[in-house]
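Quick check before the chapter quiz. The format below is the same one you will see on the exam, so make sure you can read both the input and the output lines.
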Amino acid sequence: MRHGVKRNRLNRDTDHRRGMLNNLATSILLKGLKSEPMERGVVTTVAKAKVVRGLVERLITYAKKGDLSARRQAARFVKDPTVLQGLFSDLGSRYAKRAGGYTRVLKLAERRQGDSSELALIALVEEEISPRKPARSSKSKASKPKTAKKKVNITKSEAKPAEAAAEAPAAE
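Here is the expected output.
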């Protein structure tokens, strides 16, 4: 029984799926090491992109640790030594301040010609993390002058002509 196992198997057996995802992750990391920002993505199906996203995130987290154990863990998935070296030297330092969310999956408008499956572009995130603007404190709200609402006191003598004018059109 497969209790608690949630995995998209992609209609492949284990070895084929594992090899395909390792190759796809290696391609994404290789494209991410390039200097041209527009060439840092891989076009694949949406299902494969969603599955490989977790693997790439895990590999970059290993690269952020940077120790020997993490390098050996990453070497289980990335077989290309140049990509592995670039992962630990370049990508680990690039995403050192980011706490996850290293990849982006963008759905493309066109579909694949053969089976009409949805295509997606999976790429590494380019933007540097900018510090958030500090939240406004309650002091800034309190320091603003409040406009006081004017209370209008209507006496009975002033209200009678207004009521009479309102009733006159209704009677006609």
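If your answer matched, good. Residues 62 and 102 are 12 Å apart (CA to CA).
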